[in-house]
Amino acid sequence: MTDNDPTRSPEGPAPARNRAVIIGSIVGGVVVLGVIAALVVSVAAGGPAPTDPSAAPSASTSASPSAVPSASASASSTPAPSATTTTPDERFGLPVVAEVPVSEPATVAGATVSIESVSVEQASGTRAGETAGPAARVVVRVANPAGGADLDLSTVSVRAYTGQDFAPASPIDEGTGFSGSVAAGESATGTYLFSIPEGATVTVTVGLSPDSGLVVFTP
């Protein structure tokens, strides 16, 4: 049966479909605007911008293994100092372990050595090879510390040198040098006489043994 109602629109339900399309477009636009607004707010709030992972250096390449020297390498570069010198002093031909003014004591091989006095006198020169004239009389004291063994004094050597060029002074056999030994806690003195030029300054060296090194007493 054919519907010939003249009042029905020839287009049928088309207006309803158009309204649905329009509403859907509006809703989609609102959603897109909401997403854009959220992104804008996030950037404005200071959020971190995405970075290229290849731009940051890796942790494995940030430091070179050779940048920090090993403890063994730094320690080996610093030699340990020697306790005593074994190099002979060119002035005296033997190593010097201490050099002090004549008024001060010094320690050598555990013993305390000091100069009691240095005086100038006239020597008679009675023995062969000795010269009469000015002489320096040197009195040396050696103190053996307590608690040890007796100290052998037969190996003690006392020498004198004159002037700035340290010319060796000739010994005169009129003194009474060291001999025997000294007990622990005791001291002993020895007297030595040396021929010197008139008005010369005198430097004295004392060694307790051939390998103990010298103590130098300067004027």
Question: What is the CATH architecture term of the largest domain?
Answer: Sandwich
Described by the principal axes of the CA atoms, the overall outline is elongated
* Strands, count: 12
CATH topology of the largest domain: Immunoglobulin-like
What structural class results from the helix and strand content? alpha+beta
> Helix count?
2
State Rg: 53 Å
Order of helices and strands, N to C?
HHEEEEEEEEEEEE
CATH class of the largest domain: Mainly Beta
Q: What is the helix fraction of residues, given as a range? A: 10-25%
First and last CA, distance: 152 Å
Quote the beta fraction: 25-35%
User: Mean of residue pLDDT?
Assistant: 75
Largest sheet: 5 strands, mixed
Identify the strand order in the major beta sheet. 1-12-11-6-7
Uncertain runs are 1-12, 53-83
Fold and architecture overview:
- The chain has 219 residues and is α+β, with helices and mostly antiparallel strands.
- Helices cover 17% and strands 31% of the residues.
- The chain has 2 helices and 12 strands, in the order ααββββββββββββ.
- It has helices at residues 14-44, 71-76, and strands spanning 96-101, 106-108, 111-123, 133-143, 151-152, 157-162, 167-168, 170-172, 181-182, 187-195, 202-207, 214-218.
- A hairpin with a 2-residue loop joins strand 2 and strand 3 (111-123).
